[in-house]
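Deliverable D5.2: sample structural annotation.
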Amino acid sequence: ETGMDIPNVNTLIIDNADYLGLSQLYQLRGRIGRSNKVSFAYLTYEKDKMLSEVADKRLKAIKEFTEFGSGFKIAMRDLEIRGSGNILGSEQHGHMLAIGYDLYVKFLERAVREIQGKQLEEDIETSVDLNVDGYIPSSFIENEEQKIEIYKKIAAADNKNDILDVTEEIIDRFGNIPIQVDNLLKISYIKSLCKKLHIKTITQAGNTVNIEMTKTNDLSQDIIEFLIKNYFEKISFVGTNEPTIKYKLDSLEQMKILKELEKFLEILNNFKAGITAVEEKHE
């Protein structure tokens, strides 16, 4: 599989490719295309043969990742197909294809924190209902499996760096991002901020966005005073068991709605984080 370097070879035929692992196929394919000559790799299997699900996914992956520097992506796809094993238990097998690698890692981190006796954050699923088109058009990603994969990665993004990583991957694999996908990425980031702020739902009614919290203590006196001081003309409060902030938008343009809401939540999150840091210091 490795060590061979014959620059003049530009054609490779792999017989019964369905019997080989993904990393093996990748290494074999790497034996050609090692010069400036256009190269071709033909992966064959028996005619009319019913491929197993795993073999089919391997061949689709090796077909999908053809650009230079695909090694890491191949490794991640191989990990998703084969499973990474039960790291914390005695069973040395596992399968995470159903949820994807990124979400699997989040579950793993949660399990580690639980074993270590550390406090687990409340798992909050924020519902965001804005007058914004956020989805992956079929004209951008035609393959349904790839589309679901990207949806999973966007949904699993937990912070701005995660969003940037997913954005780079999408551009690298599929090209320039259309406005609908860009909106979807921004909505995912907004959801990650909402999780930190314990926001239950965000809904839009005309030029007003209703931000409903999950706990009454999330709107402390300090936060309320900060909001009144800095957003006096833009917000109002509805005092219920689950308090709501009513935020008045400057524009109803989709991109501006997301940008304005993102900025507001970032400022609120930074202020709340500052309060928490001070409280912990005093303790």
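Annotation notes: Residues 83-120 form one domain. The mean pLDDT is 78.
The annotation will be released with the project's public dataset once the embargo ends.
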